[in-house]
Each structure stands twice: as structure tokens, then as C-alpha cells.
Amino acid sequence: MLKPENRAVKMKMRQQEEEITAHQEIIITIEDNNERLYRQMRMLMQRNNELLDVISEMQTEIDKLKNEKLLLVSKNDEKDLGHGKYMRNGVMVVKDEGNTDFNFVQMRVSRLSDKRKQQRPTLEAQTKMLLELYNHTGEGMTTDELFAKSELTRVTGYRYARFFKQRGFLQFIGSHQNGRYELTKQGRLFVEGRL
């Protein structure tokens, strides 16, 4: 027969073992729940990334549609009369174009960058932007018109505008909402190859 102290110790040990078993079961349940929640979180994150990709694609399409709309709205009825003369919106415009050949201007733009070699699409877009402004000498272009005609997103358009403003070729005249971009005299001379 066990002594009462041994019985008490044995009962205490049994209670502790039962508590340990209960705690282990709780830990296993928590680990299972944690694993289940982790899988759900990974699935949600994957779905979130897929939705972000769809949103990005949709935003790109929206930007393209806005640019197309602006091109249609701002399209001038410009007619080439030859010898540097154009009929624009019923008014004859005479331009001394100098050498504004696209490839010639693009070559000069490529020399402006601090980078050794710019990407061809970047050079083409920057050149197109300068030539659009050159073709609107005296009247300038709004931000939306310029970026639409140059086929640029707003972020890229602003970056290119800053690039040319830093070199003194471009200026923004007027308020943020109603202002217009114009080539400076230095910008016109650059496009014409006289700078």
C-alpha cells in the first residue's frame, strides 16, 4: 500500500500529465489553424497580385483610350500647301523649318542625355515631343494635347518635359490647369539644327 504522500505526489503527477496532454492538444489545434490561415493568406495574396495586374492592364487601356480621344478631339485640319506653308484651321501659317528631319533631330536628342546610349523608343518619343511642339510654334500645346499627340503617358510625358526644361528648350506658360507648353527660342534653334 502506498503512503499518503506518495499517493498525493502520484496524483499531482497524473494531473500535470493530463494538463500537459491538454496543452499539447491545444498547441496542435493552434498549429493546424495557423497553417490553414497561412494557406488562405497565400491564396489571397496571389489573388490580390492577379487583380493588381488586371487593374494595371485596365489603366494602360484607359490611358490609351484617353490619348486616342484627345488625338481625335485636338486633331487640326492642317493642310500642307508646300514651300513651308500650311493651312491650319483656315489660317495660312508659314514656317522656316530649317532641317527638322525626324532622324536628324533624333540624332541631336541622343547627344543630350548623360547616359551613354538611350533606348530607341525613348529617343523616338522625345523627338516626337519636340517636333510636335515645333509644329505648334506660337500657339503652344496643353499638357493633354502634347502627351496625346506624342503618344506618352502622363508620367513619361512629365519626365521628358522636365528633361527638356532643364536644357532650356521647353517652357510652361500659364496656370497649371490652363497653361501650355512651348518651345523656347533655344528649343526651336535646336530642332532646326542651328544650335
Task: Describe the protein in words.
With 195 residues, the protein is mainly alpha-helical. The chain folds into 2 domains: 1-75; 99-192, Arc Repressor Mutant, subunit A. It is built from 6 helices and 5 strands. The strands form 2 sheets. A 3-stranded antiparallel beta sheet has the order 1-2-3, with no helix packed on it. A two-stranded antiparallel ribbon has the order 4-5. Strand 4 (170-173) and strand 5 (180-183) form a beta hairpin. Helix 1 (4-74) crosses helix 4 and helix 2 packs across helix 3 (120-135). The protein is rod-shaped, with a radius of gyration of 35 Å. Mean pLDDT is 80; it is low at 88-99.
Short description:
By secondary structure, this protein is mostly helical. The chain folds into two domains: 1-75; 99-192, Orthogonal Bundle (Arc Repressor Mutant, subunit A), CATH 1.10.10.10.
What order do the SSEs take from the amino end to the carboxyl end, as H and E? HEEEHHHHEEH
Strand content: 5-15%
Total number of domains: 2
CA-atom Rg in angstroms: 35 Å
In the sheet with the most strands, the strands line up as 1-2-3
Number of helices: 6
Number of strands: 5
pLDDT averaged over residues = 80
Poorly predicted spans: 88-99
| Overall CATH architecture of the largest domain | Orthogonal Bundle
Output the CATH homologous superfamily of the largest domain: Winged helix-like DNA-binding domain superfamily/Winged helix DNA-binding domain
Output the structural class.
Answer: mainly alpha
Distance between the termini: 114 Å
> What is the overall shape?
rod-shaped
At the fold tier of CATH, the topology name of the largest domain is: Arc Repressor Mutant, subunit A
Largest sheet: number of strands, sense, barrel closure:
3 strands, antiparallel
Q: Which percent bin holds the helix content?
A: 55-70%
What is the CATH domain class of the largest domain?
A: Mainly Alpha
